[in-house]
Design brief:
- The chain has 368 residues and is α/β, with parallel strands linked by helices.
- 35% of the residues are buried.
- The protein contains 15 helices and five strands.
- Strands 2-1-3-4-5 form a five-stranded parallel β-sheet, sandwiched between helices.
- It folds into two domains: 126 residues, Rossmann fold (3-Layer(aba) Sandwich), CATH 3.40.50; 191 residues, Hypothetical protein af1432, CATH 1.10.3210.
Length: 368
């Protein structure tokens, strides 16, 4: 921890008082030097204030240098602190053990003032460089995430402008999906283990579930009446079109490069699949349907039920919930429905907060 006029802090650990005094004299002009005659006392000091570098003797009574290295490397907040060991002239085996435990360099005894200064400066510079690189990576990652989110919102808006459903539908279904997947994380069901990164990808991707509708002819997409059987077959292709839209990006970036794109594809192509295998486009069933798509199926159908369409009036929340309960085990994953019943009560308020507005509407993202 840099302090005392901006000097980096070095803890010197050695059981010989003469070595401690000598090392302090060598380093004190450039560094804030803290001295410790034992590993135990050094660790106690680190609890209060972590150093920028540790200069550590190996052979000490009680807690030796190897024990200190092990203790430091066990702590997440100390793991990156550079550790330089002080070693005897012929202690090759000890050097190897220390390196394997995580030490970065060694200084041989008897101690040379020039060598000590050069080695400590070098590793302090390397540590500063590492921290600067980490900062640059974090900044770049934040920038890429903002760009990713902006592109997602552009695509979501494009979908809402091309669809006879509104941006409010996209917003509502995204919030429903967020509520459902956050609930799964809290419930921690043995067969529904969801990590935060996957959950975040589901929320980010939910808004793209109907992106394939941009490829559906206007005469069908905007028809102000119930579709014919043939027209509905065309509409059903939107899930395949949507997956195709993402495939080129996934191929370009590599299948493992972007989790959210892969999750988005799961949702786009799978949210009309049904638990009993009677859905489309592939007719897959049960656990073969990705959990993201099963969540989206509930969110999408609920919103369709409570929304007005050219061929139907909106159903009440109670009627919509009864339909979802009735179709658990045929259309929907029955366990997912059971786990979600309590939080689905919030869907009523979400729908009231985000009513349909057929004016020009720009979508704003909803994230974990």
């Amino acid at each position: 921890m840099i302090q005392d006029g901006g000097k980096p802090t070095v803890i010197v650990v050695d059981d010989e008082a003469t070595n401690l005094s000598f090392l302090k004299e060598i380093l004190q002009d450039e560094f804030n030097v803290r001295l410790s005659p034992s590993g135990e006392r050094a660790l106690a000091f680190m609890e209060k204030s972590a150093p920028d570098l540790l200069l550590l003797d190996i052979e000490m009574p009680g807690m030796n240098g190897y024990d200190v290295i092990r203790a430091v490397k066990k702590r997440e907040e100390w793991r990156e602190i550079p550790i330089l060991i002080l070693t005897g002239q012929e202690d090759r085996e000890g050097e190897e053990i220390a390196f394997n435990l995580g030490a970065v360099d060694y200084i041989r005894k008897p101690i040379s003032a020039g060598v000590v200064k050069a080695r400590v400066r070098l590793h302090m510079e390397l540590e500063n460089h590492r921290k600067n690189l980490e900062g640059l990576v974090e900044t770049r990652t934040e920038q890429l995430e903002k760009m990713q989110d902006a592109i997602l919102n552009i695509l979501a808006n494009m979908t809402s402008f091309r669809d006879n459903e509104t941006g409010a539908h996209i917003k509502r279904t995204t919030i429903y999906a967020k509520v459902l997947i956050e609930n799964l994380m809290k419930k921690r069901h043995q067969h529904y283990q969801v990590d935060p990164k996957y959950a975040d990808s589901v929320v980010k991707s939910a808004k793209l579930h109907d992106i394939g509708k941009v490829a559906i002819p206007d005469s069908i997409l905007f028809k102000p009446a119930k579709l014919t059987v043939e027209e509905f077959e065309v509409i059903k292709k939107h899930s395949v079109y949507g997956a195709f839209i993402l495939d080129s990006a996934i191929d370009e970036l590599g299948g493992d490069t972007s989790l959210f794109l892969n999750v988005a594809r799961e949702i786009i192509i799978g949210h009309h699949e049904k638990w009993n295998g009677s859905g489309y486009p592939a007719g897959i069933k049960g656990d073969s349907i990705p959990i993201s798509a099963r969540i989206m199926a509930i969110a999408d159908v609920y919103d369709a039920l409570i929304s007005e369409r050219p061929y139907k009036k909106p159903f009440t929340h109670e009627v919509a919930m009864n339909i979802i309960l009735k179709d658990a085990g045929t259309h929907f994953d029955p366990t997912l429905v059971e786990l979600s019943l309590d939080v689905m009560e919030s869907f009523r308020d979400i729908a009231l907060m985000h009513k349909d507005d057929h004016s020009f509407e720009v979508y704003e993202g909803i994230y974990l």
